[in-house]
Backbone:
């Protein structure tokens, strides 16, 4: 019994968030069959369906079988019992509670006002979608990308000449090892000074042209993109040091079709239109209900 009550109480907390339903949720002509009477309140099938509809999909599925529906009904009964007792005790009249009730009611009304006066009138046409796609085509293009492995010997622009000479020597000795068949990843873990990739065997991950120039240098990128898959470069000198790069994989440039991008575009336009309509509506309300801030 105690375990059952604990389950009901936990469920009660979840259902309570959906219990203050706006009248609009209760559809006209809905099933008015009374399922249970609690004191002076009657709980109908329509009440239960409305509360179920307000639950998140992943939670709602738990109440779609007979046992789940009975559990939900028990939770609604528990809320009714406790809320009636709270009203009898005048808890709803207490200042802090009354303020919270008003806040909850205001939030529900604002949601419904937004739905009825703003969101419900928003329409995104196929012409809107097509125009957006043509005007923002670059957003639906993924440029060519490569995945490479790198071994770096750091020698920045301010490095002394003897340091650069030593790093260049190390890079060329390492290249000889690789040409003799040494495993690139193992060598990278052993000698590379690139903290971003050293632990994972030099692997950079896929990147487009221009995305590694800031950290490796333009010459590094030009060389990497010019390689054939599996090919290892000569030693590359940039303002960041000396590099050896191997091209591991290449993904060609792709362009997302209008049909594929349509759902994404519709969401963007819907949000944009809603935001604009909301801002305009709020400004019109300010004219109707002047807002004056106290100094």
Residues:
């Amino acid at each position: 019994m105690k375990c059952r009550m604990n389950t009901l109480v936990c469920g009660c907390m979840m259902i309570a968030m959906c219990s203050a339903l706006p009248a609009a949720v209760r559809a006209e002509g809905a099933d008015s069959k009374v399922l249970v009477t609690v004191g002076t309140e009657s709980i109908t099938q329509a009440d239960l369906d409305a509360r179920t509809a307000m639950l998140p999909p992943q939670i709602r599925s738990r109440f779609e079988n007979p046992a789940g529906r009975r559990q939900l009904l028990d939770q609604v009964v528990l809320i009714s019992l406790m809320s009636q007792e709270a009203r009898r005790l005048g808890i709803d009249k207490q200042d802090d509670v009354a303020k919270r009730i008003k806040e909850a009611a205001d939030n529900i009304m604002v949601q419904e006002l937004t739905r009825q006066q703003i969101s419900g009138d928003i329409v995104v046409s196929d012409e809107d979608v097509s125009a957006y796609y043509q005007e923002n085509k670059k957003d639906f293009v993924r440029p060519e990308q490569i995945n490479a492995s790198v071994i770096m010997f750091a020698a920045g622009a301010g490095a002394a000449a003897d340091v650069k000479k030593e790093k260049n020597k190390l890079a060329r000795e390492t290249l000889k090892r690789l040409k003799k068949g040494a495993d690139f990843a193992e060598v990278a873990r052993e000698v590379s000074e690139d903290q971003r990739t050293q632990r994972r065997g030099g692997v950079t991950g896929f990147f487009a042209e221009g995305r590694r120039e800031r950290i490796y240098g333009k010459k590094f990128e030009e060389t990497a993109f010019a390689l054939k898959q599996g090919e290892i470069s000569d030693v590359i000198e940039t303002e960041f040091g000396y590099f050896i790069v191997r091209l591991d994989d290449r993904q060609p440039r792709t362009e997302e079709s209008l049909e594929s991008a349509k759902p994404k575009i519709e969401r963007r336009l819907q949000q944009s239109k809603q935001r604009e309509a909301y801002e305009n509506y709020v400004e019109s309300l300010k004219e109707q209900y002047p807002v004056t801030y106290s100094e």
Notes: Confidence is low (pLDDT under 50) at residues 1-30.
